[in-house]
Amino acid sequence: MKSSIGIGLIGTGYMGKCHALAWTGVKAVFGDGPRPSLVHLADVTGDIARQKADEFGFAKATGDWRELIADPEVEVVSVTTPNAFHAEMAIAALEAGKHVWCEKPMAVSLADAERMAAAARASGRVAILGYNYIQNPLIRQIGTILAEGTIGTVNHVRLEMDEDFMADPEALFYWKSEASSGYGALDDFGVHPLSLLQVLFGRPTRVLAHLSKPYADRPTADGTRRAVETFDIASVLLDLGNGISGVMALDRSAWGRKGRIALQIFGSKGTIVFDQERMNELQLYVSTGKSTEQGFRTILAAPQHAPYDRFIPAPGHGLGFNDLKLIECHELLKRIAGEPARVIDFDTGLGIERTVHAMAQSHREQRWIDLA
Ligand SMILES: NC(=O)c1ccc[n+]([C@@H]2O[C@H](COP(=O)([O-])OP(=O)(O)OC[C@H]3O[C@@H](n4cnc5c(N)ncnc54)[C@H](O)[C@@H]3O)[C@@H](O)[C@H]2O)c1
């Protein structure tokens, strides 16, 4: 086992900081594996990079991400830039022999996602995507409840993801409104519930989708208005195979919803309900026992739900969003060490991308698309 591993970080916004916190804390929380050495940080200018390198504790800073990738001390590259850069940066890093931890969605186009998966295969390096929600100890617990048959045979799954950062019609046009960022809610949001589906049930076999735009245009910083190119709302029917039907509803313009990723799983003997806005609790209904005393019960996250115990010894105190990223970071290090790990690698991620693009095709052609 190596005692340290060299880290490069590209991008220092929302996700860049989240990756930096994960790299900083992973050894302290889990105690095992190599100690991350924060080697090199890149952002759009040298000035921003130097400021963020100082804040996050990276030794070197650059305004040119290719310098970071050429750095022999960097062994793993975190790609946390906007979607349009993922393919170019991840492929360059893999070709330079680095492991890659790339934010979701994998890429804007399916062709780029395919090139990324091929580059990962050819490199023999580890390449994973930022599907942090699968790391929640309670999502793991849902997997256990399903495997133990507690709710019987699953017949229907409902997934929702809603936030309100695009709800204001006068919110400024930015990169997420540009077609170069992707379809909109479908790839920005849909990939997250699809990652949960992936670990709990696998890929859908058929999809039927409808995409919509709540607002046709938005104001720009220079005082003009620009036509919105992405779809902030998506409604999708899913066939999950094995007699399981599903529905996925996504909305980036849903006033009042701040980080909702809701999951309802209905079975022959009970129901499981989870919502990321209350990420430390899970509702379970089981249809056995006295009918007069039946009802949903709340299960609070606790040390029994590994790896909660690595953060806090007390039940019910709660993990946070950044902790999910830290668990993901630990799973990445396990995969790099050749151990079994709960990650969505580029090959599995390509499956999620294919599903998303099939949904967009379904919207365009107004018909079910087969994925089998
Ligand atoms: N896993 C999650 O839960 C989650 C949550 C939010 C965003 N994301 C994903 O993370 C990615 C980044 O989103 P964000 O919200 O952090 O964006 P952001 O705008 O907050 O940060 C992007 C960063 O990339 C930098 N950057 C842009 N172009 C660059 C270039 N050419 N070279 C170097 N740096 C460059 C920007 O300066 C900025 O620091 C997106 O792909 C997004 O979909 C994932």
Quick description:
Helices cover 33% and strands 24% of the residues. It has 11 helices and 17 strands. It has a 9-stranded mixed sheet with strand order 16-15-14-13-7-12-11-8-17. Strands 3-2-1-4-5-6 form a 6-stranded parallel sheet, sandwiched between helices.
Ligand set = nicotinamide-adenine-dinucleotide
- Encode the helix/strand succession as letters: EHEHEHEHEHEHEHHEEEEEEEEEHHHE
- Count of separate DSSP helical elements: 11
Number of strands: 17
Strand order of the largest sheet: 16-15-14-13-7-12-11-8-17
Structural class: alpha/beta
Q: Please report which band the strand proportion falls in: under 5%, 5-15%, 15-25%, 25-35%, 35-45% or over 45%.
A: 15-25%
Radius of gyration based on Cα positions: 21 Å
What percent of the residues sit in helical stretches (DSSP H or I)? 25-40%
Mean pLDDT across all amino acids: 97
Largest sheet report: 9 strands, mixed
| Low-confidence spans | none
Cα separation of the termini? 41 Å
